[in-house]
Amino acid sequence: QVQLVESGGGLVQAGGSLRLSCAASGRSFSRVDMGWYRQAPGKEREFVATVNWSGGSTYYADSVKGRFTISRDNAKNMVYLQMNSLKPEDTAIYYCNAAGIWYGQGTQVTVSS
Label partner for 46 (CA 20 to 30 A): which of 15, 36, 68, 95? Predict the structure, then answer.
């Protein structure tokens, strides 16, 4: 089992940047794929990005491709989401995900126009 705690959310103007962090606990962290999802008000949770267990392979939703970068540090049990060129439509609660199963409590990202 993996426990996840997100941080780094906040309020930013359009065009700005934020870096989200996800601290993971659990001995299986380095063996599972990790990802980020988000849920905007009134909408379903959607996929944002994923990184495989080694960090060597990443995949992004079309809506964030070229603007967001997912990475991980297995030595620190951390996953990151660097978000650049933020848009108001990126406003959502962002959730860290492990193995497609476990989610953290989420961190709010608000992008003002």
Answer: 15
pLDDT score of 30 more than 90: no
Cα–Cα distances (Å) from 26 to 21, 32, 74, 98, 102, in that order, read 16, 11, 12, 11, 12
CA dihedral 18, 103, 5, 34 (to 10 degrees): -70
Task: Record the tokens describing residue 39, joined without a space.
Answer: 């849920």
pLDDT, tens only, 55-69: 999 999 999 999 999
Tokens of 19: 């870096």
Whole-number Cα distances in Å, 80 to 34, 45, 48? 10, 19, 12
Give the Cα-Cα-Cα angle 81, 82, 86 (nearest 5 degrees): 115
Strands in 1-113 per DSSP E: 3-7, 10-13, 18-25, 34-39, 46-51, 58-60, 68-73, 78-83, 92-98, 102-103, 107-112
* Cα–Cα dist 4/97, whole Å: 8
